[in-house]
Amino acid sequence: MKIGVMKNQMPVTISPASPNEHILMAGTSGSGKSTRIKSMLKDCLERQETVIVIDINGCDFCQLDEKVNIISALEDGLNFSPLDIGKRNEDGYVGYISYIVESFSSIASLGIRQMGVFREAVIYALDHRKEYGNDMLAIAEGLRLQDSNVATGVYNKLWNLLNSKAFQRGNRHCMKAGTINVISLKGINPSTQKQIAELMLFAIWKKCRVMEGKGISLRIVLDEFQNLSLKKGSVLMEMLREARKYHVKLILATQSITSFPKEVLTAVNQTAVQLYFRQTSSDVKKTAELIDPQQRGRWVLILKKLAVGESVATGDFLVNGKEMSQPIVIRTAFPKSFADSKEKKLQIF
């Protein structure tokens, strides 16, 4: 995948020898991260890759091209059934229920007793889902019918999510293979955006693991990914560690990684390529240390002089087809147009 160009326009791509195809991007707002992502997506569209962009910030990628598939969670609905997250579980019905409960528990930090009442709500919802407008309403009713303090607490904890318009049964748009699917969470409150994004990642990850990489290859773009759960065992950390064998590739963007806990920093630095855009004054020295601790002073000066759209690249990459081992400065190759792509439905949710 093309990640940028040199000053002389020579292309820079991820090395095929890399253990994965994940990309990490870090830089201040306005440093050119979004434009670089759009340039990468142009490359994906030309190759008819299937891409899912979970846009938390609000339509940053909605003006890419008319052929890009834009899905507004509030206006269109997600065509996403949370009760299908655990389908095709190798542990049968018990595993099916458990995976759904674990997914919600992860995004809402449910305790043992809370998980118990939520499990009962899920069982009720599965038995009565056809009686409700969507899965979330069925789960909500399953909690209310239990009439206990614990169930009421779980309902209140998940109230925004359970009542979100994002889970209306939409028909205007569905996911499409071989193109870019931008899922816009614009207009949804931040805490619910985070929960929806993580539920979708659980569903995508489950599908990919069931398929065992057969017949499905995805690139997932997550801007401001630091807002998602990065704790041990979270779906995003699992993807970083195991995604290659399931043909899942991540593009992760954030403003800063220097404040991440050590274990998270170690995980995100296992990406194939790290792209460091313009940094805040408080992050410059720490970022230079990540780039090359032996020449920190040199990279401090380079980071301070980066123009908008420029970044320092580290990791496994090729320059004009040749392996490079040292950090380099690359820039965005601005796309002129997007290539045609065939449309076919993508069965994820």
Write up what this structure looks like.
- The chain is an alpha/beta fold.
- The protein folds into two domains: 2-49 and 217-338, Rossmann fold; 82-167, no CATH class.
- It is 37% helix and 18% strand.
- The chain has twelve helices and 15 strands.
- It has helices at 33-46, 73-76, 92-108, 112-128, 135-144, 149-157, 159-162, 190-211, 235-242, 262-268, 284-291, 296-305, and strands at 2-5, 11-14, 23-26, 50-55, 69-72, 176-177, 180-184, 218-223, 248-254, 273-276, 310-315, 317-319, 322-324, 328-331, 344-345.
- Strands 5-7-4-8-9-3-10-11-14 form a nine-stranded mixed β-sheet. The protein has a four-stranded antiparallel β-sheet with strand order 1-2-12-13. A two-stranded antiparallel ribbon has the order 6-15.
- Helix 9 links the parallel strand 8 (218-223) and strand 9.
- The longest helix has 22 residues, at 190-211.
- It is elongated, with a radius of gyration of 21 Å.
- It starts with a strand and ends with a strand.
- The model is unreliable at 337-343 (pLDDT under 50).
Mean pLDDT: 87
Question: What pattern of helices and strands is seen along the backbone?
Answer: EEEHEEHHHHHHEEHEHEHEHHEEEEE
How many separate helices?
Answer: 12
- Percentage of β-strand residues: 15-25%
Largest sheet, if any? 9 strands, mixed
Separation, N- and C-terminal Cα atoms: 26 Å
CATH domain fold name of the largest domain: Rossmann fold
CATH architecture annotation of the largest domain: 3-Layer(aba) Sandwich
Radius of gyration: 21 Å
At the fourth level of CATH, the homologous superfamily of the largest domain is: P-loop containing nucleotide triphosphate hydrolases
Helix/strand-derived class? alpha/beta
Number of domains: 2
Low-pLDDT segments, ≥5 res? 337-343
Strand arrangement within the widest β-sheet reads 5-7-4-8-9-3-10-11-14
Number of extended strands: 15
- Helix fraction by DSSP (H/I, runs of at least 4): 25-40%
CATH class of the largest domain: Alpha Beta
Approximate shape? elongated
GO molecular function, one term: DNA binding
Keywords: DNA-binding
Protein name: Type IV secretion system DNA-binding domain-containing protein
InterPro entries: HerA_central, P-loop_NTPase, T4SS_component
